[in-house]
Design goal:
Blueprint: E1 2-9, H1 13-31, E2 35-39, H2 44-50, H3 56-63, E3 67-72, H4 82-94, E4 99-105, E5 121-127, E6 131-141, H5 146-160, E7 171-178, H6 181-198, E8 202-207, H7 213-230, E9 233-238, H8 239-248, E10 255-258, H9 260-273, E11 281-285, E12 291-295, H10 312-325, H11 328-343, H12 358-370
Parallel strand pairs: 1-2, 1-3, 3-12, 5-10, 8-9, 8-10
Antiparallel strand pairs: 4-5, 4-11, 6-7, 11-12
Helix pairs in contact: 1-10, 1-12, 6-7, 8-9, 10-11, 11-12
The protein binds adenosine-5'-triphosphate.
Residues 12, 72, 74, 277-278, 297-303, 309-310, 313, 351 line the site of adenosine-5'-triphosphate.
Length: 372
Amino acid sequence: MHKIGVIPGDGIGPEVVREARKVLDVICERKGIQLDFEEFPLGAAHYLKTGEVLSDETISRLEEKESILLGAMGDPRVSPGVLEKGVLLRLRFHFDQYVNLRPVKLFQGVPAALAGDRKIDMHFIRENTEDFYVGLGSRVRTGSSREQLKLIRETYEVKFDIGIDLKDTDELAYQIGIITRQGARRVIDYAFDLAKKKGADLVTSVDKANVLTEVYGLWREEVEKASSSYGIEKEFQYVDAVALHMVRNPERFKVLVTPNLFGDILTDLGAALQGGLGFAPSGNINPSGVSMFEPVHGSAPDIAGKGLANPVGAILSSALMLDTLGYKDAAHEMESAVMSVLSDGKHRTADVGGKMSTTAMGDAVLNALKSQ
Ligand code: ATP
């Protein structure tokens, strides 16, 4: 019995999670998988009613779960960031979900961003806790802290020779990226392990080690080590080259491992390549802790409650959850059902120019699954 916490959340979250649950119920019954769901009413409605974003008590109840299935967080009635940071980011950090797994697969029948018959099937493994997102930085202004600015000017000019003339600067901001050896190693190992499981013979490491030499120099050392210990080839690519290749020749990529910031940007490009936000699944994974699966899209308040949301990203996220729990066959069958529904090009929700409702799309996947 696997304990699963469900957070439908805001906007289109509850609508897409409902469809994912429908499909999960059928596949689990067929495969004898026992999932014990508990819903958590987090999000804007809960916050506006109680003033509480995420209590310690809720966190400790979530600690008892094996996985969390989440819809979306965010609502125009609540200041931006309150729910996203207060729930999503807090859970990611609390559970140390250091792997952000983003499969990018273009299904036949989905209108593609790129011309031609493209076979896009890659996995991004994005580091989820470090890099330039550690919140280390500051602003220094002349007026408020002349001494501090003087110190910074002297430090940079004298000690580091950064090549920027700070003499006439009255304000500056800086942000520091951190990569720890342990933090790099664990996510890079996860990537090589995934490559092994998928039978991939190459892992592409993304960085900008020619300019950001310290952080990504250390990152590369760990890629070298993992490559030899797993016996899988590696290649180092600069982030700008990866962006170029993703558009010109995405077929060349299978498994990519990337630091946090570059992964954030490239995976949205990936979502575009797979048909848009509505198709993109994700997992925030702690291989020895509580993982959280969610569609890549947000709450999409513009279409919330109208039955227009594409539930495919949420359905594929729940398949990713089953896969991570060890049920490869079940995950594969769910994905095949999605694939067969999309393949005729007629089953389309509004985001890709179709007329199908959220429920009708969920039902179509359900029927395809039943007839497999
Ligand atoms: P949030 O602040 O929660 O991130 P947002 O509206 O800024 O919400 P997204 O929810 O990611 O950002 O969506 C951006 C746009 O993409 C939406 O306005 C919506 O039109 C479209 N969209 C996103 N997800 C879906 C989906 N599953 N189905 C259909 N359209 C979607």
